[in-house]
Amino acid sequence: MTIESSECQQEEEKMSVVQSLNSMGRVRHGAHRARLALAGYGVESNRLRDIAASLPTGVTVISTTDAHGTPHGMTSGAVCSVSAEPPLLLTSLGRGSRTLGVLLDRGAFVVNILHGAAAETSQLFATSGADRFAGVSWHRSRDGLPVLDREVVAHAECQVYEVVPAGDHVVVIGLVTDGLVHQDDRFGDPLLYFRRAYAGWAAKSAASDARSAPR
Predict the structure, then answer these.
(1) pLDDT the model gives residue 77
(2) CA angle in degrees (0–180, nearest 5) for 72-153-212
(3) What pTM value is reported for the model?
(4) Which strands make up the sheet holding 197-200, listed edge to edge?
(5) Which residues, other chains included, contact 45 with Cβ-Cβ below 8 Å and sequence gap of 6+?
C-alpha cells in the first residue's frame, strides 16, 4: 500500500468516527481534523509509553452515571486545564473504555483529583471487573454525578463541551460547571504517577522552597 492510499484510508476512518459521534450530538463546535501522513511514521508504541511515563502526571478518577443512575468511573492521568474563559478542561479516554461510552451518553462527568494517600483508590478504579464504587465513600452532586468523598484534594464537575477523536483515544473537553478545593491538611498533597510508580508531592514544602529561593 502506498503512503498516499494509506493516508486516504486513515482520513476516511477519522471522518467516519467523527461523523458517527456527530450523529449522536457528541462532537461540539466542529472538531478540527488535521490531515497527517501517519503510515510508516512515528515511534513504536512501547517507546512512546516509556517516554510518556517520564512525564509526572496527576492522578484522577473520571466518574459519571448511566441512564439508571449507576455510577461508573476509571483512573486517568490524562487531564489538564484548557481555558479560563470559558472554563474548560480535558481528559483523554481509550476508545474501548466502558466509562467513555457512559460519559458520552450522560453528557457530563466529574474529575476527582486524588490525594497522595489514595494510590489504592487509583488501583481500584484501574482494575477491570472490580466493583469500584463499593470500595470508596462517595456522594451525588446536585446534578446526580458521583463525587469521591475522602480520596480527593479537589473535584470538578463538567458538561461535555467538545469531543475529538485522537488515534486509539477520544479527547473529551468539559465545561466546568461546579467544583471544590477540599481543604484537608491530612491529605493536602496530590497523588503523582512517574515511570509506572506512584509518588506523593510535598506541595507545601515546594511552595515554601520557591518563596525562599534566591531571586
Answers:
(1) 87
(2) 150
(3) 0.72
(4) 57-58, 191-194, 197-200
(5) none
